[in-house]
Amino acid sequence: MHTTGSAARLDQMIYAHADINDGRCVLGDPWADVQQPYSAARSVDGVADGVGLKGHVNQLRKLKKLHPRLSVLVSIGGPGREGKFSAVAATDASRKTFVSSVVNLWLRGNVPDLPTGAAAGVFTGVEIDWEFPQAGDKANLSALLAEFRRQFDALEAETGQHYQLTAWVPANEQSAVHWDNAALHLFDHIVVQGYDLHGSWENKSNFSSALDTTDVRQTWFTCARAVKCWRDKGVPANQLILGVPFYGHSWTNVGPTNDGLWQAATPSNTVVYRVAKAKPGGVFRKPGMGAWKYDSVGRVFYSFDDAAVMAEKAAWVKAQALLGMAAWELTGDADGELLAAYRKGLE
Quick check: 325 and 344 in contact, CB under 8 A? Predict the structure, then answer.
């Protein structure tokens, strides 16, 4: 990140994911998070880890020293932890305990088995990645957000520093309804899912992250639809960030009609951009929608966003007066090509 120039193009980085255990927020992977030592050759600043804090968190601390304007937040949750969120949000006592554990571990930096405050200052906020609240969670989710804001504000009064509360939110209206409109103002900003809109769970090749659509019968989930869903819930445009993918989906046994687009196919795998870019085949485009690669020999279809699509999405984000763009995730764009394209477009 530092050597490719990607870090210099970022305003904010989300570190994913923290876990939930026994009603408290905990390290997602203690070895990788804070224990694994980095040699001088692998370290961000060229200095080997010594005693104390190690792992990714220490590397993030070093990265912030090299790029002082970069803020780092921790994402809590992610796929497979839905029930854990429901449990910690269930009562006033469980909410207080859970949020207090978040503040203690990530914002105060009190890492187990290390000196008090060993990781202080690395993280300046939290992203809530609850996938996905259900109808019965709605009131408890709102109460949980209010508790986050209350404890963050108290810490801010103590330290004089603002602590961000953000969220990743789903693209579809059926899931969005479980987020109470009146509680959304508690977030500093919201990242709207703009990927996995169509994918390899479907038996037809399609755009996995279409900006918009020229044929709603074929491609009905789009970034434009996802953003509209949250605008309709009353979220201001300047509070919304469009999520974009540094990976895509693929299909096999795809016929050549329409250069492979919207054809009956066998679902295959997700594929990161750096890998998809190197695959054989020609790249095709539908302006305003997206790009794809079709290998007519191997009959394989890859849906992904390349640099030109990222620039197009950046122009759309500016036209919609959204706050910005966010990508999942940086390793898919190893040389920083996609990030450079959308950063330039946003500027």
Answer: no
Q: 247-252 and 300-304: which strand pairing?
A: antiparallel
Say yes or no to pLDDT of 2 above 80.
no
DSSP lists the bridge partners of residue 264 as 204
CA distances from 181 to 159, 184, 229, 232, 236 (A): 30, 6, 11, 9, 12
pLDDT digits (tens, 9 = 90+) for 164-184: 999 999 999 999 999 999 999
The band of 200, judged by pLDDT with boundaries at 50, 70 and 90, is: confident
Which residue in the block uniquely carries the two structure tokens 């196919």? 265
Residues 6+ apart with CB under 8 A from 212: 222, 223, 224, 288, 289
- Contact between 270 and 200 under an 8 Å Cβ cutoff? The reply is yes
Cα distances (angstroms) measured from residue 272 to each of 146, 243, 299, 306, 345: 37, 15, 19, 11, 22
Q: In what order do the strands lie in the sheet with 12-21?
A: 24-26, 12-21, 71-77, 125-129, 164-169, 189-192, 240-245, 324-328
* Residue 67 neighbours by CB under 8 Å, 6+ apart: 2, 7, 8, 10
pLDDT tens readout for residues 70-91: 999 999 999 887 779 999 999 9
On average, the pLDDT of the chain sits at: 96
* Coil/strand/helix, residue 99: helix
> Distance (Å, rounded) from C-alpha 107 to C-alpha 128?
15
How much is the pTM? 0.96
